[in-house]
Amino acid sequence: MRSEAIVGVLEKQYVTKLLEKGKRSDGRNLLDCRPIQIIPNVIKKAEGSAMVKWGDTVILAGVKAQLGTPFPDTPNDGVITVNAEISPISSPTNESGPPGPRAVELARVVDRGIRESKIIPMKDPKLCVIPGKKVWILFIDVYILDDGGNLFDAAALGAMAALANTRLKRVVIDEDLEEVTLLDEKEPLPRKGSVASLTFAKIKDTIVYDPNLLEDRGKDARFSLAITDKGIVCSMQKGESGVFTEEEFVTLLDQSSSLVTPLLEKIEESSQFPEMNEMYHFDF
Amino acid sequence: MRSEAIVGVLEKQYVTKLLEKGKRSDGRNLLDCRPIQIIPNVIKKAEGSAMVKWGDTVILAGVKAQLGTPFPDTPNDGVITVNAEISPISSPTNESGPPGPRAVELARVVDRGIRESKIIPMKDPKLCVIPGKKVWILFIDVYILDDGGNLFDAAALGAMAALANTRLKRVVIDEDLEEVTLLDEKEPLPRKGSVASLTFAKIKDTIVYDPNLLEDRGKDARFSLAITDKGIVCSMQKGESGVFTEEEFVTLLDQSSSLVTPLLEKIEESSQFPEMNEMYHFDF
Amino acid sequence: MRSEAIVGVLEKQYVTKLLEKGKRSDGRNLLDCRPIQIIPNVIKKAEGSAMVKWGDTVILAGVKAQLGTPFPDTPNDGVITVNAEISPISSPTNESGPPGPRAVELARVVDRGIRESKIIPMKDPKLCVIPGKKVWILFIDVYILDDGGNLFDAAALGAMAALANTRLKRVVIDEDLEEVTLLDEKEPLPRKGSVASLTFAKIKDTIVYDPNLLEDRGKDARFSLAITDKGIVCSMQKGESGVFTEEEFVTLLDQSSSLVTPLLEKIEESSQFPEMNEMYHFDF
Amino acid sequence: MTQDKISLLLDDGRRLDGRELHEIRPITMKSSVLDRADGSCYLTWGNNKIICAVYGPRELHPKHLAKPDRAIVRVEYRLATFSVNERKSPAPRRREYELSKLIKESLDSVLFLEKFPNGTIDVYITVLDADGGTRCAALTAASIALADAGIPMKGFITGCAVGKVADKMVVDLSDVEDKDGQGDMPVAMNYNTGEITLLQCDGEFTTDEVKEGLSLAIRAIGEVYKMQKEAVLAKYTQIEESIDDLGEEEE
Amino acid sequence: MTQDKISLLLDDGRRLDGRELHEIRPITMKSSVLDRADGSCYLTWGNNKIICAVYGPRELHPKHLAKPDRAIVRVEYRLATFSVNERKSPAPRRREYELSKLIKESLDSVLFLEKFPNGTIDVYITVLDADGGTRCAALTAASIALADAGIPMKGFITGCAVGKVADKMVVDLSDVEDKDGQGDMPVAMNYNTGEITLLQCDGEFTTDEVKEGLSLAIRAIGEVYKMQKEAVLAKYTQIEESIDDLGEEEE
Amino acid sequence: MTQDKISLLLDDGRRLDGRELHEIRPITMKSSVLDRADGSCYLTWGNNKIICAVYGPRELHPKHLAKPDRAIVRVEYRLATFSVNERKSPAPRRREYELSKLIKESLDSVLFLEKFPNGTIDVYITVLDADGGTRCAALTAASIALADAGIPMKGFITGCAVGKVADKMVVDLSDVEDKDGQGDMPVAMNYNTGEITLLQCDGEFTTDEVKEGLSLAIRAIGEVYKMQKEAVLAKYTQIEESIDDLGEEEE
């Protein structure tokens, strides 16, 4: 067995034993969340951005907007697409190259949370500029910069906060020519509410909210759900080789509404300062 | 030498010794064909499809049609393209990933047989909807599901049978706008005749028609030819590291017309029931 | 250490010791250039081409032209793009596959030399056929056929000579339809002056011009600069892990104008015979 | 709640294909359908058609990927190019990577992987015709193919999706119900132990609807599990009959 | 029979480029043209220009691909981006993969691969200018390059295409005859033994036309083979002369 | 000389962003910003924002790439998709490959690679926000991250671009000056030894302008080097203070 594998086994034993005594490696209670900081509008070249520091996890989400043609089956809808880069910067075990299954799952879960919540009204004339011809395409890219555990919630929060701070160039339409002109003036991306993700890790028989890195590495199963400010569950994702029972899911669903509130508040807070602000800067 | 390699050597010795006595491992005569079953219209989402069971080889061919722009050098022609997937499902030695040289050769040989036979009239107004602008693009995909030998003939037969059962949506053209509308109503793909492939394997000094898996693995050389219902040779392909003499090719050409007839009959038979039919279903 | 690595070390010791005595492995003085031969118009299917034999390095550059849409940020400019293939044909150590970092650097340095020199007037109506809609796209592909050292200068010379011999089909524009017709008649690519590359290798403390293969393999640092016929430096590139001092760069800049003259002359010479000529053929 | 884009329930409260709200589509399962694979299954579920081949446990190459204490499971879930409305490129999309990962993780939980150190169990699934619920059908088929390969298992994974249509929770969504309805919720589990191995959703559900969906899914999975067991037993019955025949012949 | 799209035969029965029906285009062959390669050949065939480099037998990396009882042959046939009418992307297309495979299989038959266990012989071919019949020209060039590398061979592979133009079987199709004619039939063989290593066709041929084509091809290959032999001998003559010169100098 | 496309100098001779011709933009540097990396640096340079992580020296996999007599340096310079005007695809472009190579070669010269046979030092750089001069900023950040990882170095690599704007040589081009000006000339060096490790240019320069640019760049690099040294020292001061604190507590 290679040395990392042995370290992994020992780590897991340590975390498990602590949890059997009801304790977490960082002293939190089972449903406690780590401190969260959202720093909006950090990227000048992006239409919207947010750095999220979640415990010692750091992610950076950026939104770029581009006018393009809609998909043939949704001619009156703007387009949203989420990509996640689990950069080698974030951990010694990550390799560079095209996104692996882990990054693909992360991106798709974040994507579904936003898409299914319908908080970005894709048919709004601000997004569907000329129906069937020209719509805004929003590229949301999430870079994982420091992997301290619970990437799912940090990435979802960053993507949401970046959208909440996105401003699109105003568009002038020449109906005859079917041509559009982009003005320098910007206006906020239309948005109806917000959404946040809650992730739980199951280690042996204990379930914790917001797993730290040790818990993330040692977990048997993961469960994430995205909930809107209306209390609607718009995405769920159970992952990893471990299992949950029906009762466990029911309990987690019952706990979800109180856990999601502080996250939704943080998003709204972060969107109060939509202008690029020299005060906001990375502070690692 | 790895164990598979040794098995390969022993297998080949066995097949070769049998053939030296004029016998085949499955008891057939040298020019006998294995039993063939064509099950058309098995895929509801496809415009045309056919499963072919050829001995214990199983393939599934499907046709998808899509309106698109023609190639610049053939502005008045519909487009046909063949792809073959030698799936890892079909054999323990196949790996997943983009098509390797073997799958590329298979696809291109099937493609040439159909294309060069000119049985699909690509300039027909049903295929060339608006000359220079909109034509039907026919994607023929052949999945190898169980590799029991002689993939070339099974794949060619499946592709041909899928075409013979293809029905395209009717198109209404608005000449002014250069726009087209697709109706739900379907009509058969225009077709003039049919084509089938004959494959021979040479093992040491013996040539057999329709190689089974043992013969396929042990063969020194392969020769395939595609012949139309008018008796026209529209494609030939010698493969593998072994060799043929001129005399051997001449003999094979002379044998071809009697061998191809039952295949062409099977294609016509399969096209008698063009509607999706619950009676037709895979029966492995 | 693998045997090639040992050979590499010995080779380098040999070259270095010679240079310490002021001698080069092929007997040249430090600033001598090897014999150069440009054979233009060798490829009938290309719009322009040139084979360059530079010492025992052989490269082949070809230009293909294609009408296409301009880049959105330069709607009134034709497009030029350089690609380099360091083919496995050219050396036992090259592998096939997509261009590696070495080929990418080579292509980009050649590209910058041509692009920044502005010798091809990309806004000329002969290149920008319909502003914003249709421009000529010039693909310059450089194949390295025999790597005898100093690929940078040979590739740049080949690319430049191929451009100097490029002839484009005449275009007739139908302004109303915004359509163009290509005539069979050809006319020379507009060109204002020319540009050539000078490459120096530093081996321990000695700098040589036009490194041969031994010097190229043993070099600590490389410096290339592209200079136009007006004496303008339009591209520089220092490469490899070794270093230069400011004084060394100043000296090389001072030496550059006398070294570039014979190269520019060769380019002009090669462009005197723009027609495809049976007299010109590869002579390895 | 939002309206369905098209009306997905008929006036009599039945669904577009005539099903009751909690009714599963017809399912057929057949194992040992492929001669080359170590185990295989062909499964139809409504208009879904799925083929699954299993190889292993076998040696894993390249060796540095092997685990010295257990086998790994590799799963490839693919959509055939012609299985969907618009022809799909043969290159796998992100959805196929995600589902391969989730199916692998689901199967992990019922396999005695520690019995096969350094080994791999390879599961190849191709959806030949797709009509909603393919991941659940794929997991159901994979379990049968694994059993068919004689690989020791703690139990079967069985899947069934539920969803929301016209503000009602319904069982086993078809393609059109998935696309035009209000939400999809695929579930898979080891029915015998009650261990849920896959749970996803997208759409708009209240937490009560999620709970209702879970309980509907488990009930439906129970029905599918019964068929699955029969399909596996059918094979052994066949083998027993062949052995009996053999015995008779030998007499 | 179908008509040619454009008239490919002149009134005097000659072809567009003035050739007789059974006439081969001018061919030049030169070996040892590259300093780095173990063997090489530059061949022109009408307007085709082909360069071939051979390396080996050399050790094969990665080792798990090596065969303990013989060398393998790896062939890469590529079209230069500028060798065809529309600029080709540098990434190889399916046609290039197929032809690489067929060329490799053809060369296999004349090499003593069992003499070089665990080894590889690498053949790199680039078509610099293409004008019909490149695969036959490539095989012809590869044989010379292999001989130039000093690799022991049972014989040479020599190729020549035939085809059908204006209902007549003709030898050595040009690009335009290939595109606008009725069919193309590339053939390659070991002329000395009569062993045919490559045979393809596409187009519309009667079986009699195929037979006629085969016999025309073999005759044409005989002509090309003579040139090929001379090209290889020329090198040894040169070497002998050099050795003679050396002898004289030493005296 | 050609005109700038837009006027890049104001009437008072200052630049669009108010800078003097030879003035560097504000720079901030912070090391040890990442918990997972062995060394790291976050650097802002005008509107450029760059993050760099260093791992190593560590064992190199696969082993056949390792050098028995020294470590290798692997550098990945990437632009974040949102760091530029038009969203960039996450797949690296040719420019990123070229700059990764040049940055690696620059760093090579200050590392004691022979101390770590068979090893690798991995430097990952991502430009999060780009505004001209990213390669020089990246090299500057990478040196700090390497020092932060405790990797022994002969010195630091420090970079600064110069360029030509309105026929004048200016220091530290911004994005718009790079795009609309007459030429860009990035330089990087070991300031202490005077060894220049990176020199590029594109645009139109006389040889005298190149020489002037070089000397301006070296002076600017001197200024940046001072900040760089302070940023590295700051970390050690912090550590010392912590140790002092520790000492006091122990008393």
Plain-language structure description:
The complex is a heterohexamer, with 3 copies of chain A (284 residues) and 3 copies of chain D (251 residues). With 284 residues, chain A is α+β, with helices and mostly antiparallel strands. Chain A has one domain: 2-Layer Sandwich (Ribosomal Protein S5, domain 2). Helices cover 28% and strands 32% of the residues of chain A. Chain A has a 5-stranded mixed β-sheet. In chain A, strands 9-8-10-11 form a 4-stranded antiparallel β-sheet. In chain A, strand 4, helix 2 and strand 5 form a beta-alpha-beta unit. Chain A is elongated and about 70 Å long. Chain D is an alpha+beta fold and 251 residues long. Chain D has a single domain, classed as GHMP Kinase, N-terminal domain (Ribosomal Protein S5, domain 2, 2-Layer Sandwich). Chain D has 4 helices and 9 strands; from the N terminus they run ββββαβαββαββα. In chain D, strands 1-2-3-5-4 form a 5-stranded mixed β-sheet. In chain D, strand 8 and strand 9 form a beta hairpin. In chain D, helix 2 packs parallel to helix 4. The longest helix of chain D has 44 residues. Chain D is globular. In chain D, 56% of the residues are buried. The chains are: A alpha+beta (284), D alpha+beta (251). At the A-D interface, helix 2, strand 11 and helix 5 of A face helix 1, strand 8, strand 9 and helix 4 of D. Strand 12 of chain C pairs antiparallel with strand 9 of chain F.
